[in-house]
Q: What sequence folds into this?
């Protein structure tokens, strides 16, 4: 369990608060808008109304005691910048900040953010990959060059094993897990026999994954 300071309770902040709560982390949620604070109270450990660009307010939070600080402010870039800088000034060990554009990310990192996330950009890319192909059930980009895809078992693979198919050698991809309904089987054995109603999570370089998915 981690202690998380979450600043900014727009759509992204609220969804993050809900997921952190689901994962049993302690969350202190902050927003300048009283209604947003009231709305998130059922899914966080505690919440406060406050201006995160106010130095006295940030100083009162004891930010150095949080494992993670998230600046989820999406509608005021100047406030996001000032908040990141204050958090680092007061000893926050790790700050993740939301960015809408590359130029925003550059300034947030210069102001002390340890990492930047692009929720809209990342979701748009994921949706584009997932819904533009009949053979992709899910997709996660790990880096600019490597990804994980969830895809159906090719018909030609049914009844055969990983060893028989020489998947790594022939396709340059790794089968990380197999899904059968709601059951997930991580790191399948080399002698696993592929079934028609399974899907698989495959990891590889984007060029190899694309070639595999679009194969005839």
A:
């Amino acid at each position: 369990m981690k202690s998380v300071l979450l600043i900014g309770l727009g759509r992204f902040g609220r969804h993050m608060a809900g997921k952190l709560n689901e994962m049993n982390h302690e969350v202190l949620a902050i927003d300048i808008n009283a209604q947003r604070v009231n709305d998130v109270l059922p899914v966080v450990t505690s919440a406060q109304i406050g201006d995160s660009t106010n130095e006295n307010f940030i100083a009162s939070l004891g930010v150095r005691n949080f494992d993670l600080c998230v600046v989820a402010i999406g509608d005021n870039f100047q406030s996001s910048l000032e908040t990141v800088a204050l958090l680092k000034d007061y000893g926050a060990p790790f700050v993740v900040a939301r960015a809408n554009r590359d130029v925003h990310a550059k300034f947030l990192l210069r102001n002390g953010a340890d990492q930047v996330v692009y929720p809209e950009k990342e979701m748009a890319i994921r949706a584009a990959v997932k819904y533009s192909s009949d053979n992709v059930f899910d997709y996660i980009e790990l880096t600019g060059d490597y990804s994980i895809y969830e895809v159906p078992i090719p018909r030609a693979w049914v009844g055969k094993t990983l060893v028989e198919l020489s998947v790594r050698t022939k396709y340059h991809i790794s089968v990380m897990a197999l899904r059968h309904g709601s059951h997930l089987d991580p790191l399948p054995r080399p002698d696993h026999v592929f079934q028609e109603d399974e899907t698989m999570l495959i990891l590889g370089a984007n060029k190899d994954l694309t070639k595999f998915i679009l194969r005839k």
The chain has a mean pLDDT of 89. The chain has two domains: 3-117, 122-213. The chain is about 35% helix and 25% strand. The first strand starts at residue 3 and ends at 7.
